[in-house]
Structures are given as structure tokens and as C-alpha cells.
Specification:
This protein is mainly α and 275 residues long. The chain is built from 15 helices and 2 strands.
């Protein structure tokens, strides 16, 4: 890369510029490639945290820095630029670093983003932490008059459904059903407020995984309960079809709900014939 012949290459000059011995990426695709394959994740995260802290410090009264910090601190963006290897640990390290900013500890949106990072790898430890982060986010949000909590409630629905899917023991099936009902209840509550966004349909897609995980441990009463919830979800999908039909999350949610209802109808039909 330090050969003069390479630096003189026109293709090279389109993606990198060389100045005083430094190489600067001119292509966002190349920059993302470098970041996601960075060999030292801790070093990179510490650097990004420092950049975020500096931007946050300069953001008071400055919309450019405010938007830059807000984007960098969001799970949607940060997960795209962290190394692929050990991404879960890098995400947690990143949000732990941002937690050192005093104002962020009082910001419901920060705790929401931290929870989303935890939910991205829904093992027991992450789910437990996600629940605490969401609970804290709601507590802070409710203390702020007029604060919009639908995004937090949507992720709470996702938490309940992920947690319900995690239970495998036959003796825990009633707990799983309770978590499932709480998750669907959150979704229906947010939808009823009529201020929701298409992200509400992401947790709905989890109903298929919940059903396939537990179907062998469900009794007929459980099947009827799930059917009732899925019919309510089917109704809101029908209501929003014109609005979100081009969105992949919406289509996946609708298809998964329809699939579960078909499977339950088949199960009940077989049971009736056996009787």
C-alpha cells in the first residue's frame, strides 16, 4: 500500500487519499469494511466512545453535533460499524462507556438503546439486563411530562416474547404463556394509541418461534388462548396492510401470525376427529 505505483493508481485514489504518511478512506463502504474487520475491538470501541463523548460535550446548542451524537449512540447505527467478531461484547462495552456521561444516565432514550443492544443477542443474561434497562427507561420517561413511551413499550413487548420463547421446560409452560400474553398485550396497547411506527411489527414476528418452540407442550386450552391473541394480531395487520405492506418486517409478522393460526386450526381439527 506504500508503493508509489499503487498510490498513483486512479482506482486507489478514488477510495483512499494519502497525505503526510496518513491514509484517509474516501469511500463509506471501505470505511465500514475496515471498521467491521478491525483486529482490536476494545481499542476501536474506546475510540468511538471518546468520539461520542466529545460530540455530546459539543452538542449543547449545536444541532450538527447533536445529530451526530444521536446517530452514533443509536443501536441502529453503532451495530453497523463495530467488528463482526465479538459484536455482542463490543455493543455492551460501547453503552457502558456512554453511561459515564451524566446526562445520559437520566435519558430514557439512552436506556432504550442499551436495552435494544441487549435484545439483539437474547440469551438469559442479556434478557435480564434488557428488562432492567427497559424498566428504568419507563421510570425516567414517566417522570417527564408528555414523554412518548411507545418505542419503549414496543421493545418491552419484544422482551416478553423473547423471554417466553426462551422457556423450554414443560413445567414452565404456564410462565411462558404468561410472558406471551404480556407481550401481545403491550403490542395491542401501543397499537390502540394510534401513534405507533412500523417497528411495532418486529416483535409480532416472534409468535411463530414461540409456537414452534412450545407446541409439543401446549394443551388445547393453550392453543385456544394463542389463537385468540393471534386473531387480534391478524386484525391489526389487516388494518395496517395499506400503510406497511411494502415493509419486510410487516410482511414477516403477518405471514407468521397467519401460519400459527393455520397450524392451530389443523391441531384442533385433528383433536376433534380423535374425539
Amino acid at each position: 500500500i506504500f508503493e508509489p505505483s499503487l498510490r498513483a493508481n486512479k482506482v486507489f485514489q478514488q477510495i483512499l487519499s494519502a497525505n503526510d504518511g496518513k491514509l484517509n478512506a474516501k469511500s463509506s463502504v471501505l470505511a465500514e469494511f475496515i471498521l467491521t474487520r478491525f483486529p482490536n475491538a476494545v481499542l476501536l470501541v474506546n475510540c468511538i466512545v471518546q468520539i461520542a463523548k466529545n460530540a455530546h460535550e459539543k452538542s449543547q446548542g449545536n444541532q450538527l453535533y447533536f445529530k451526530f451524537y444521536k446517530d452514533l449512540a443509536s443501536f441502529r447505527y453503532i451495530q453497523k460499524i463495530l467488528p463482526d467478531t465479538g459484536k455482542r461484547d463490543s455493543l455492551i462495552l460501547f453503552y457502558q462507556g456512554l453511561k459515564e456521561i451524566p446526562r445520559e444516565r437520566e435519558n430514557p432514550h439512552f436506556w432504550l438503546q442499551y436495552a435494544i443492544a441487549r435484545l439483539s443477542v437474547p440469551d438469559k443474561d442479556n434478557l435480564d439486563n434488557a428488562q432492567r434497562h427497559l424498566s428504568h427507561a419507563l421510570q425516567l420517561a414517566r417522570a417527564k411530562p408528555g414523554y412518548w413511551t411507545d418505542d419503549i413499550e414496543t421493545q418491552y413487548a419484544r422482551y416478553y416474547l423473547e423471554n417466553a420463547t426462551r422457556s423450554f421446560d414443560l413445567e414452565e409452560i404456564n410462565n411462558a404463556m404468561e410472558e406471551f400474553s404480556l407481550g401481545i398485550g403491550k403490542i395491542l396497547m401501543v397499537h390502540k394509541r394510534d401513534k405507533y411506527r412500523k417497528e411495532l411489527y418486529r416483535p409480532i414476528a416472534l409468535v411463530k418461534r414461540f409456537y414452534t418452540t412450545h407446541r409439543n407442550n401446549l394443551n388445547p386450552h393453550h392453543h385456544l388462548e394463542i389463537m385468540g391473541k393471534c386473531k387480534e394480531l391478524q386484525a391489526i395487520c389487516k388494518k395496517d396492510a395499506a400503510k406497511f405492506e411494502d415493509d419486510i418486517q410487516f410482511r414477516r409478522a403477518k405471514d407468521n401470525v397467519d401460519w400459527v393460526l393455520r397450524e392451530i386450526n389443523l391441531f384442533l381439527h385433528i383433536k376433534d376427529n380423535e374425539a
